[in-house]
Amino acid sequence: MRVTDETSGSLFSYVDLEDRIPSRHPLRKIRQVVNDALASLDGEFAPLDVDFCRPSIALVRLIRASLIQILFPVRSER
Is 22:30 a contact under the CB 8 Å cutoff? Predict the structure, then answer.
């Protein structure tokens, strides 16, 4: 079962996450490039999904988390 990569901007905050990042911040351009690259790799990710167990974390979300760890000093994967 393919897991969707849905974001919830108001999960734990009353301020939308899009309002916290300035419109001209470099992260916005990086996000656009990463989204385009992941969209082009969607066909490669499809065979990795399994239908017989519970859904896991979306693969694109894990890749984005790894990129954040590369770009910023995050000490743990938790």
Answer: no
Q: What single DSSP character describes residue 36?
A: H
Question: 9-62 pLDDT, tens per residue?
Answer: 556 667 777 788 888 888 888 889 998 998 898 888 777 766 666 667 778 888
φ, ψ for residue 36, nearest 5 deg: -65, -40
- Taking the C-alpha atoms of residue 65 and residue 52, their distance in angstroms, rounded to an integer, is 26
Give the CA distances from residue 71 to residues 18, 31, 34, 36, 44, in Å, rounded to whole numbers and listed in that order: 19, 12, 13, 18, 24
Find where tokens 């990086």 sit: 30
Q: CA-CA distance, 17 to 68, in Å (whole number)? A: 16
Q: Give 55-76 pLDDT, tens digit per residue.
A: 677 788 888 888 888 888 766 6
